[in-house]
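#help-structures
NK: newbie question, is this the right format to request a structure? protein is TetR/AcrR family transcriptional regulator
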Amino acid sequence: MPNTTEQRIINNTIKMIDNEGYQNISLRKLAQQLNMTTGAFYKHFKNKNELFYRTALVLSQKIVDWLPISNEQNAFAQLLAMAQNFCELFQTNPRRMDFLFFNPTVISIYHQTNTEFPFLSFARDLASQVNPGRLSDEDFFNQIWSFIQGYALLIKNQVTNYDPNLVKTTLLELKGELK
């Protein structure tokens, strides 16, 4: 659990991501907003990459906590709800989602099968529960995730609008239930 100063730094980083985008965050500007020196910042985080990593962990948990998913739903219904809410987040919090899924610091971590990110762990778990077994859990997750993330980007970029029937049909096709 981060200490109070670390939590303040992370919370301010999230505000800066939401307002300016992660690409425009400088440690100097961040420290200024918190009335601290950059030297004081380095007592809590060894560098910007560590700050981004820890911020991503917090945001990933916030997404899981925010998802209105019931354990009483079956895994497929949970996956559909997750996809819908993921697409909604790309519309309502595009900078935050860009940070979580497209910033180089976090992407390098995704290359490992990292279980520290609650949202991705949740998505992987649902995919493995839905997997009909024709592919490995990892390959099946990659197929589902590619569709959900790609579709969310199309919506974010206003190429299309969210269509729950398209999502359901595509996920059923990936499961092999529709031909």
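mod (FA): yep, format's fine, and the tokens are attached above. The first helix runs from residue 4 to 20.
NK: thank you!
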